[in-house]
Design goal:
This protein has 272 residues and is mainly alpha-helical. The chain contains 10 helices and no strands. The chain has one domain.
Length: 272
Amino acid sequence: MKMMKMRKSVVAAMMLLGLVVAPVAASVSLADDPPATTEQAGAEAPKKEGGESQDAKKKANSGFMGVVFGSGVLGVILWAALFLDGAMAIYFIVDCMVLIRPQKLMPQGLINNVQGAVAEGDVMKAIKACETEPSPMSNVLAAAFQHVEDGYDVIQEAVNAAADLEIERITQRLTWISVCSNLAPSLGLLGTVQGMIMCFATLSSGSPDVGELAGNISQALWTTAGGLVVSIPALTFFYSIRNNANRLILRMTALTMELIKPLRNVEVEPEA
């Protein structure tokens, strides 16, 4: 009986101790982490909205337009120069593709008129046909007809010299495409250097802003990519158009020699 009474008294004491300790522990917990009141909830709501707007702003600034206009005055000038360089490359590519064609270099009408004049043995008529339809081939043919009396070797030299001159004229147009393709990587490299300078300037502050640092790195990479995007197509079109021009000039030279073969022994009569 005594043992049962002792057990009951121990259980009662432990229950009493639990009833005392539980409120104390609850009060300590509430003191350490107080519940959010309506005022605090209202204060957190604008903070959350401000955080969302700040995240949206950072997301907008991380885009391409944000990189362009967030890179400072020098960065905007570099991007304007890159866009202008790309526009000039497109212009010269289209211009050369339009002009360097068989219809422009070797008009069929000119070939027919010269063939008819050569068949008649009338050199002056052939020269007038070249003057009527000016083109690179008419210049080469005119140089050949002007040396008909000087021998076939002299004619060949005159044709080759005139063809070289036409190649030089065409190359001068193509050179602008090469200039644009070589200028674009330089502008991109300058933008990369500017972005790295801005990165180190941000790091030198001691507590750099990660978003600003990422924007500076984006500026460096975007300008490099922009320069390559302009340079690679421009360089490809440059070599393609140049090879096509050289092929057409060689064809034009060979056709010129075929047209003047019957005139080896023709005498040119001066106009009355």
